[in-house]
Amino acid sequence: MKRTLSSGFWILLVIFFPIGLMAANYVAEADKLFDQGGLANYKQAIDLYQKALAENSSDYEATWKCARAYREYGNKAKKQKVDGWKDICAKYGKEGMKYAQKATELEPGKPDGYYYYGLNVGIYSDGVSIFTALAEGLKDKTQSSFEKTYELDTMYKEAGPMISLGRFWAVLPWPMRNREKSLKYYREYQGTEYFADDTEAQIYLAELLIQMGGKEKKAEAKGYIE
Hints:
Residues about 1-5 have low confidence and may be disordered. The chain is about 80% helix and about 0% strand. By secondary structure, it is mainly alpha-helical. It has a domain at about 160-225. The protein contains eleven helices and no strands.
């Protein structure tokens, strides 16, 4: 009996340990590529995260990081205005949403999946238009994803939930748009250590202040723009 148990233990060890080790190696290599940035590196990172998931489909880290890499690939393609960037955003945003959704199912108490679900919807919307995304019912899911991230960890990814919710409420078309809510989150982000060096967030805030109108708001916006 003891011999049988011992044999079974070693069989399980031989079967499962290399799988976990291989998956961890794929994730570690993908992380290095992701940190280097650039379309080619993001694409290679995606491939490696997927290899890790082929070894272990329940690998939470590989799952949410794959969603992150999809989002960054689409975002980089958009910023660089590469040929067919809208189609790229639509494709990569949609795939990223799938991995992010899976991450929330694997670890519903962690913020990663919720956060990157919302960001991938944004990339997807850049590709297909915000109106198409709304018609597909993505507004409520995006809102709840960012709000859940905010609830779980307000300071996640350098206070990302604050700026994401601020932007979310600012870019929605009327009558869903809510500039007061947007300003609330932007002001909260403004009080963090990250705002001073975040040029993009300052432009977002300036844009909102101009839209809201008023002498004081416009004067503040002018300062950020300058």
